[in-house]
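Honest question from a wet-lab person: if I give you the sequences of every part of a complex, can you actually get the arrangement of the whole thing, not just the pieces? Trying it with mine:
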Amino acid sequence: MSHDQEKWDQRYRDKPMQAPAPSEFIREILPQLKHGTLLDIASGDGSTSLFLAQQGFKVTAADISATALQRQTQFASALGVEIETLCCDLNTAEPLATDTPYDCITLTRYRPSQALITQIISWLKPEATLAISAFTAGINPRFCLRPGELKNTHPKLELVYYRNRKSNGSALDEYLFRRRT
Ligand SMILES: C[S@@+](CC[C@H](N)C(=O)[O-])C[C@H]1O[C@@H](n2cnc3c(N)ncnc32)[C@H](O)[C@@H]1O
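Yes, you can. This is the full assembly:
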């Protein structure tokens, strides 16, 4: 088991058994998300994926923490929705074997590497939407983006929405992209 997996498993074991709420970002951009199949990367215990499953998306959630995914499966069952889960390490060269691209991908409160963004693009259908949020301040700078850093991240990604949202001493960059055909 990797250090990251142990660290995150412990964090999720320490959390009270309560389903997490979606971020304001995801609530606000919901009408702009392409409906259909959805991959929630670094999903944690489901703040984004549980909400979007309730909105009718067909959700696959991927995370390094098996504990987070077990929690999420329990929350999903209590809410009467289905979520497929995949345990994966995003730091590996090919973290996910996906044959079928998705209509929408979400990645919230996680800083993606450029290599991961390139992979994510290959998992998106043409015209699919990609929502990313990542801290720009308030946590270890190693895990932060520079504000606006991803605005022109790849020619295949058209920027639809951008905001730097500040709250309680931290700040998050929020992006919504559409994959160009
Ligand atoms: C701050 S949490 C965000 C969880 C969720 N997306 C949210 O917004 O509530 C970061 C998540 O990234 C996951 N994570 C960290 N390193 C990872 C890796 N190398 N591969 C896959 N997931 C990872 C953690 O297990 C954790 O669930």
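Two things worth pointing out. Residues 4, 8, 20, 42-44, 47-48, 63-65, 68, 88-91, 108-110 surround S-adenosylmethionine (CB under 6 Å). The two ends are 39 Å apart (CA to CA).
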